[in-house]
Amino acid sequence: MNRWQKIAWYNLIVIVTVFTLSGVTIAVLTITQGMPKALGGLGLLGFLGFLGLTPIIFRKKKGELKIDFDERDQVIWMRANVGAYSVFWLVFTAACMIPWFIIGPKGTIPVYVLPMMLGGIGMFLIVVQSVLTLIQYGRGGKNHE
Amino acid sequence: MNKAQKCAWFNLTLTLVITALHASAFLMIAMMGYVPGRLNTIGFIVVFGLIGISAVVFRRKQKFSKVEFDERDKFINKKVLVVDYFFLWAILLAGCVVFWRYLGPEGTVRVYALCALLYGLFLVAMVVHSVATLFLYGGGCGAKFGAITETGEVS
Questions:
Q1: DSSP state of B36
Q2: Could you report how far apart the first and last alpha carbons of chain B are, in Å?
């Protein structure tokens, strides 16, 4: 498994774990303490900050002569980004139009929803990009060479 | 100039014309005072449908002996999409900051503003896509892989 696959797995694991933990916490708090307090479980989403640690955890070791990012990696990286870009339009259009159907064109939404919307889309796209990266490396030859 | 460059010029020109028309319409509405009916003038948005024509106008092969879309074009196309992707994220984040700054976190936006945001983002995407295509054919990748002349030779 090369560095980029490890990063993709790491991103996937962090996002899935944090969202699962947050969901379970909200569910448990809803049962025990009721709804407004249960939303405190959203605070666990702060652990998504672990995604920022990838450059430190998966940094290239000093003195390592192995090529880290060749033409094939570049093509895979680009394809994963292009895939994420395609999904971006789909998700972003849905995010803009769904409120239209639910609360109507003259309804209003609070401004703080916008960064939350973007954060959600961003997380979803990181998942898409990671899955695409893993799929593309998986199609390679022996030992992912 | 190849097909992708012609398409890029066409889209860029059309997008800029539409944006200029929008800007002038909003400016006139602002100067003359807001009357609900005046917003109907924005209906010329329909002209933007012309962008679909580029696929028809530039569909013909320039020369049957000439390769129309090779590895280099493919690479440039992918690179342009990646540039688009990162640029749009920057614009969206900036948009959120602007909303937050001027309306505050407790402020509200109308739902139709989201549709306007979507439309605006599409216009920006068209401009970024066209400019990046022209730039990569003219500079960056052209210099890296050798520019292709009118006769199809690599210089």
A1: G
A2: 14
Burial class of residue B133, CB neighbours in 10 A (0-12, 13-18, 19+): buried
CA–CA gap between residue B124 and residue B130 (Å, rounded): 10
Which phi and psi (to 5°) does residue A104 adopt? 85, 160
Q: Is the pLDDT of residue A104 over 90?
A: no
Chain-chain contact of A81 with B115 (C-beta, under 8 angstroms): no
Q: What is the pLDDT of residues B10-38, one digit of tens each?
A: 888 888 888 888 788 778 777 777 666 66
The verdict on ipTM greater than 0.85 is no
CA distance A131 to chain B (A): 17
Mutate to test the interface with B, among A85, A101, A103, A116 (most CBs of B within 10 A): A85
Q: Is the pTM of this model over 0.80?
A: no
**N-terminal to C-terminal alpha carbon distance within chain A:** 9
